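Why run this: before we spend reagent on co-expression, it is cheaper to look at a predicted model of the complex and decide which construct boundaries make sense. The entries below are exactly what would go into the expression plan.
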Amino acid sequence: MSSLFDLAGTFAPELVLLAGALLVFLLDVLKLRRLELVGSVSVGASLLALALVVADLGFAPFASLRTLSAAQVNPSLSALATPLWTFTSLGLVFQGMFLLATLLVSVASLSRGSKETGGPIFFGLLLLATLGMLLVAISSDLIFLLLAIELSSIATYVLVGYTRRGLRPLEAAMKFYIIGAVSSALSFFGASLLFGAYGTTNLLAIREVAGTVGTPILALLGYAFLLSGLAFKATLVPFHAWAVDVYDGAPSDVSAFLAGGTKKVGIFAVLLVFLGPILFAGAGGSSNPFQGGPFTLGPILQVTLGTLAVVTMTVGNVLALLQKEMKRLLAYSSISQAGYMLLGVTIGTAPAIAGATFQVLAHVLMKGGAFLVVAGVAGLGIGPLVDDWRGLGSRRPLLSVAFALLLLSLAGVPLTIGFVSKFVLFSAAVQAQGFFVWLAVAGLLNSALSVFYYARVLKVIYFEAPPAPLPTGGAVVGGAGPEPLRAGGLGIGRAVAIGVATALVVALGVDPQPLLGPIQAAASHFVFFWR
Amino acid sequence: MLPLLSLVLATLFVGTLATFLAGSRARWVALVVSSAFLAEVALLFADFTGWPGYSAQLVPGFSEGESYAWLHLSWLQINYTVGVDGISLVLILLTAILQIATVLYSWKEAKKPNAYFGLLLLTCLGSFGVFVALDILLFFLFWEAVLVPMFFLIGFWGGPRRRYAALKFFIYTHVASIVMLFGLLAVVFYSGSTSLDFSAVYLAARGLAPVVQTLLFLALFFGFAVKFPVVPFHTWLPDAHVEAPTGGSVLLAGLLLKLGGYGLIRWGVELLPIGFAHDRSILFAIAFLTIVWGSVVSLSQRDLKRLVAYSSINHMGIVLLAIALNSSLGLLAAVLLMFAHGIVSGLLFMTAGSVHHTFGTRDLPAVGGITPRTPALSTMVMVGSLASLGLPALIGFPAEFTALLATWDGLRYLVFIPLVILVVTAAFYLWMMQRLLFGPVRGVPDGAHDIPWYEGAGMGILVILTVLFGILPSLLTNVIVSSPIRGFPGP
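The model came back. Tokens follow.
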């Protein structure tokens, strides 16, 4: 890795995003703040980066594995010879999914209206947050991993409150910032404990030395703190409380990005950090580096993660049942979905990781799409309550069909991507046998439970009459037809983004093989690499 | 060769969508779709009887086989696999006949006709799918796809207690289908099959230990028994039937109950023959209980629809008995009985609906002596009742005769239980006809007219077929016996 050119090729998607973000800020300085202009830069940058990632995956699906250390990048840093970055095909798949979320949100945000003033801030920070997410997917060192998470987190703190309109976004941003800072501190503390136990923060090196050096109790503490920190990012119960307020308070487009994109960073980080210990959980004997001494780290972590997964999906689903506001309902459903993803990570076999990855992809499309619909519907003058959506089916048929399909997919109805992802995930759990079969049963019961609140929304949209206009001046206005919706449509960008998300949800539900095949290959490759 | 089965599925799918979107012209769309469906099924029959060719197709043991990869995981393959044999083909014919008859009968449905006809078509689409699906997941999808439209048909177009009936129907059958799905998946996982295809699971399940087969068969049997329904699990049926609109009742009795029988044959007995052989005594006990119970309870019914519903339970008991005999003659009888019951109960539910439209009540003591005023309706009632009690030259006769013959073959003198019950059945139908059709005139309003043309057309189709297949049952039996025997007779 000598020439700068090679280096640029390796980090091409990241560099494209960085350049895009800088260009947006430059345009801001030059007072070229038109939303369409800066938005196009964001769309273009994320599209180009996505194309680069897909090309990388497509041309060399299995040869893409390579590690890269700071010393290789800059010979004067010869002390840092352990690989900071590991390019696995699964990491590239995750990069692709992150970019897909960014792309959907960017395209949708093009139609926010010309009154919007914060365009450059929004799109610039969106690109920077995505950059951080991409770096997470290729990191193989705890410190670098946590720094990359930090980059995406700080950008999103600002994104939540950037409109400075009203108190709710500000409150959400403040809450997000404080919780985020605490969780980062927890993660870094955990990493420092692991450094104390193993003498390194490099994940590949930890795997090598874990059996011979280190104190298991210190390592266990380190993993516990690290898990708490990452659990905040991935919105796992009981570290989830912030997510609902933040998704609710943030502008809906930002919520789409947070739920559809950023939280998967936490899932992938948990996968990266804990896969090594989990993979060794099954293998006994003295050769198992994670089973030295009185503490068998692997099983402890696996049971902890499994419990967290079940608690997360159950609490998310039960609380979603009780919600009256659409965004809060979607936020809780998003929390429960994080539980499904964690289930796959917990099992740690290649099929289960493939299932979790497919679930992430499904969630990007379903939840991203759903929040974009919510943003669009708010623009039509419909209130935040679920009941405010009454009769939308007859007033906005196309939009309602799209939303219904997204919800059906979230509920796991066959012929949508949500069914496929859950099927892959749960059958992988059954295939792993033992304790995991019960995780599958818990997951199945939970998806049955979730049907109730999605069905309630569908009932409100399709089977209830639109709200009548308020009586004015003591007399009911004659005709008593439904209150007219605000004029104007969704805007082309938002319509395109919702349409693409919905179409993909259905298309991948009908024929998942084109993406499921590569994802399975990437997952087995990933497990093979970490073993 | 044409991918006929996929073509039919596509026709029904597009047709259902078009019907939902068609607004007030929905009935015409539904009629066109039903006619196309019937034509395609005729083509299917011609193709099947002309070139049965079981030897060289994509799906072993089935005709018209098609198989495409759908979801290939590293440890499990799920395909879109469809195919027919004689058993499913006869039931597909039943689906097509009942669909067009129901559409015609419900011609003037006024309440949201597009949704009504769309849901009718969707039910038939699901049933057709169940009969052709040869992959566990595909089968389950169609199985559930039948449930949802029927739930809405009862819940929106039903009688006064429709919500209760719809919910009860949904909960009973849904719990049963979940048990069935888990049973089927357990068969897959225990047998170590790497594919959900029928033929793969069929082969892999040969290796299962008898104890495992016995237990798994019970789970599957429970799943199908609720749909059947047999006696301890039957209570949803009278409620659902009484509250459902006529079209819904027809499809419920004519098609949905057949799903239970078909499922038991294809996914129960054929998949786990050893388990079936071990559990036969339970099946016999339940079958006799169902036969006796259904028939005796029918005697005490005042509501015409409820009477037909209980007689359905009685007939499905005979179907279960015929299956449990574990002989190829019993299998033939079971399929023939299902077809006959589909046609005849469809006809009887239509007449019950017409009685209700014409006289405003189905309460037997309240109406009587209707023949002079409504001769056409009376004829239909009479044909349906006589066919149901097994009069020769009508379709009920060959079916019940074969069933009794097979019972004699397998159980000897126990045949007297269904035989005596047959007399009871004849008694309650004759008594019903005497009260409703002939006796003194009661409760006939002055303005009562005979049935309108569309109701007559719907029932007429079924009457003609009742006579046709009653005289020429070989049209069906030749098709049924051409199926390769899997699981029958067992060890």
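Chain B has one domain: 4-481. The interface with chain A takes residues 69-76, 137, 141, 144, 185, 189 of chain B (CB under 8 Å). Bring this page to Monday's planning discussion.
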